[in-house]
Design goal:
The chain is 33% helix and 32% strand. It has 357 residues and is of the alpha+beta class. Among the domains are: 79 residues, Elongation Factor Tu (Ef-tu), domain 3; 99 residues; 59 residues, no CATH class. The strands form six sheets. A six-stranded antiparallel β-barrel has the order 2-10-14-12-11-15. The protein has a four-stranded antiparallel β-sheet with strand order 3-9-8-5, with no helix packed on it. Strands 4-6-7 form a three-stranded antiparallel β-sheet. A hairpin with a 5-residue loop joins strand 11 and strand 12. The two termini are 76 Å apart. Pfam families: BSH_YknX. Its main location: other. InterPro entries: BSH_YknX-like (IPR058639), UPF0194_transport (IPR050465). This is CclF.
């Protein structure tokens, strides 16, 4: 009997202990739930926008390559420096052609000789004109016409005047040739585009000078399934892979003839985007054509002194950040790239007290 009482007592004790443990766990769990409920922070996460996706790269938009041309002569004078930015039509360098200069010198000698002959013949004309007047005054002209023994001053005057006209015509032709060649003695090479100059003094088998436009251009390819979805002036968002910066732009050209892959199994249609900001040549980009607008709830925004702010969640702290956005209905439409996909911003940020200073 005593033994039975002991067993019953132990059983009651165990049941009581289990009840105490369950009760303690319930109270702790309820406390944790209530604590989480009290400390819960509501936030809005920036999601990726829709639109057609492509990969591309920043390429040279315009380029002028200049090889040295020996037919123009020898390199004479360079007017720009390596790395200098130049505008279109700026003088870059000049050639000097010694062979043409020798031809010009020879023509100058001919011109001097012709001028000398013309001057002498004109002097003869003047003298004959004086003699003719004297002969007429003394009535010698009739006797000269009768005898035909000597040529009259008047006849000689006409012949020499004709000769002077021929010499003058030859002179004018020679001057014209000289002036035409003179323009080729020194030839000026000008910039056909605006851009940065690169001068090559090492390997003259390659271009001596290059001008690369600083206007950025993005190159990408679309498959046969996507090309018809693209239109000129379509808005494009370009995310630079190396730094996640986003730059807006628009499509300016779509090729109609595809480029075949090396194995000949697929074709890609090239298209080009002009970005609103400069992107370093060679940088890779992720493209979204006609991206959807990123809408931020009005409840996430703080308006102060005409500016718009949000509070970015960064670990346990929240950073106040200015953004560019326009109010549309009950949302703000983001207009810059200050926020990126995955960023979290507080809802009702004015109630938050853990702000990073």
């Amino acid at each position: 009997m005593k033994k039975k009482q002991i067993v019953i007592g132990v059983s009651i004790f165990i049941v009581a202990l289990i009840g105490i443990i369950i009760s303690a766990l319930y109270v702790k769990n309820k406390s944790t739930v209530n604590s989480n409920k009290e400390s819960k922070i509501d936030y809005f996460e920036i999601k990726e926008t829709g639109g057609l996706k492509f990969k591309g790269s920043s390429i040279i938009s315009k380029e002028q390559k200049i090889m040295l041309d020996k037919s123009n002569g020898e390199l004479n004078e360079v007017f720009v420096k390596d790395g200098q930015y130049v505008e279109k039509d700026v003088e870059l360098f000049s050639y000097y052609n010694e062979a043409i200069q020798e031809q010009v010198d020879e023509l100058n000698r001919q011109i001097n000789s012709l001028n000398s002959k013309i001057q002498k013949e004109k002097e003869r004309v003047n003298k004959l004109e004086a003699l003719n007047k004297e002969a007429q005054a003394k009535e010698v002209q009739a006797a000269l016409d009768t005898t035909n023994q000597i040529q009259s001053p008047q006849t000689q005057q006409v012949e020499i005047t004709s000769m002077v006209d021929e010499l003058t015509e030859t002179l004018n032709d020679t001057i014209s040739k000289r002036d035409s060649l003179n323009n080729k003695v020194v030839k000026i090479i000008k910039a056909e585009i605006s851009g940065k100059v690169y001068i090559n003094n090492e390997d003259l088998t390659k271009e001596y000078m290059r001008i690369i436009s600083e206007d950025s251009l993005i190159y990408a390819q679309a498959s046969e399934f996507d090309v018809d979805k693209l239109k000129l002036d379509d808005k494009v968002e370009a995310k630079i892979i190396s730094n996640n910066k986003k730059v807006m732009g628009k499509i300016i050209k779509i090729e109609e003839v595809p480029t075949m892959s090396s194995d000949g199994k697929s074709a890609g249609y090239a298209f080009y985007i002009k970005p609103d900001e400069s992107i370093k040549i060679g940088f890779s980009v992720e493209l979204t054509v006609n991206p959807e607008e990123i809408a931020i709830p009005k409840s996430c925004v703080i308006e102060e002194s005409g500016k718009v702010y949000v509070k970015l969640v960064e670990g346990e702290n929240n950073k106040k950040m200015e953004i560019k956005a326009t109010l549309k209905d009950d949302n703000y439409i983001l207009e810059d790239s200050t926020l990126k996909v995955g960023d979290k911003i507080l809802i009702n940020p004015s109630e938050d007290s853990k702000e990073e200073v």
